[in-house]
Amino acid sequence: MDFAEKLMKEIHSAIGQNKRFILGVDGLSRSGKTTLVKRLGSMLDSKDIQNLIIHIDDHIVERKSRYNTGQDEWREYYYLQWDIESLKEILFEKLISSSELKLPYYDNYLDRHEYKNLNIADKKVIFVEGIFLLRKEWSSFFDFTVFLDCPREVRFSRESMKTQQNIEKFTKRYWKAEDFYMKKVRPIEKAQLVLSCDKLVKE
């Protein structure tokens, strides 16, 4: 991963200044975000650099707060899928200097949250991966951001056959929200590093 050299320079610079490094990995659904952070986390593990991966999708809200709200489905997904302001306060504002996080983890089966405490005192690098990370409420909290650029047809092909059959949900909910994000926020222009999913697969 040639791009990893650039990231490692940024990380070592922060560590050298005794700072925690916060890396945001953004990208639309099924673009390869989880694969990337796992690879980078393993690379840091091999160098004995303590790190933690936080998946934004672990912290979505209950169904009643994001479905059948009276708003357009794409707006529910973009604006209501997460409690944007709450995550800003309990997660993003605490990443740099806090020694512990208390976060709500969503149980999809039970449709409820379980709060867990995360000890991050020894973490030198924290990865946050998820869609829409570069929205204005969160973008300023990252030391470095990566955006995974992947065509819709490639991402859709990675969904299960059962999921692909619900095409109406994609057209009304997911894809409209993605289009809004790409046009309004312009994450490709904002991210410090843009990677194609082809490059990620090859490496």
From TrEMBL:
Listed name of the protein: Kinase
One Pfam family in the UniProt entry: PRK
Alphabetical list of PANTHER family matching this protein: URIDINE KINASE (PTHR10285)
Source organism: Mesobacillus jeotgali
Keywords from the UniProt entry: Kinase, Transferase
GO molecular function per UniProt: kinase activity
Annotated coiled-coil segments of the chain: none
The organism's taxonomic lineage, starting at the top: Bacteria, Bacillati, Bacillota, Bacilli, Bacillales
Domain Phosphoribulokinase/uridine kinase: start-end pairs: 22-158
